Amino acid sequence: MPHCYIEGTAFYYQKIGQGMPVLMLHGFGPDSRLMSGCMEPVFERRSGYQRVYVDLPGMGRTKGRPGSESADSFWN
After folding, report:
1. What is the average pLDDT across 44-63?
2. What is d(CA 36, CA 24) in angstroms, rounded to the nearest whole number?
3. What global pTM score does this model have?
4. If 64 and its partner were Cys, which of 7, 49, 50, 58 is the partner (CB 3.0–4.6 Å)?
5. CA angle 54, 41, 72 (to 5 degrees)
C-alpha cells in the first residue's frame, strides 16, 4: 500500500495512468474510493493523465492524529 509521509503522518495514495498528474482530493466524509469511482469513467476516454487519489487525515486508509477531530484540526 503506497504512502507518503507529511509531518509524521502516513498519507495513503493511489496512482492510476501515466502522463500529466492530476491530484484528486475527496470532500467531507468519504475517501479516495468515491473520487476514483466518479472520475475513472471520465478518464477512460482521455489518455495522457496520471490520476493521484489521496485519502485525507482520518478518512479511508490515512489515519488521523490522536486528538484530531477533523481534517481541519489535523493541520492546527
Report:
1. 90
2. 8
3. 0.80
4. 58
5. 25
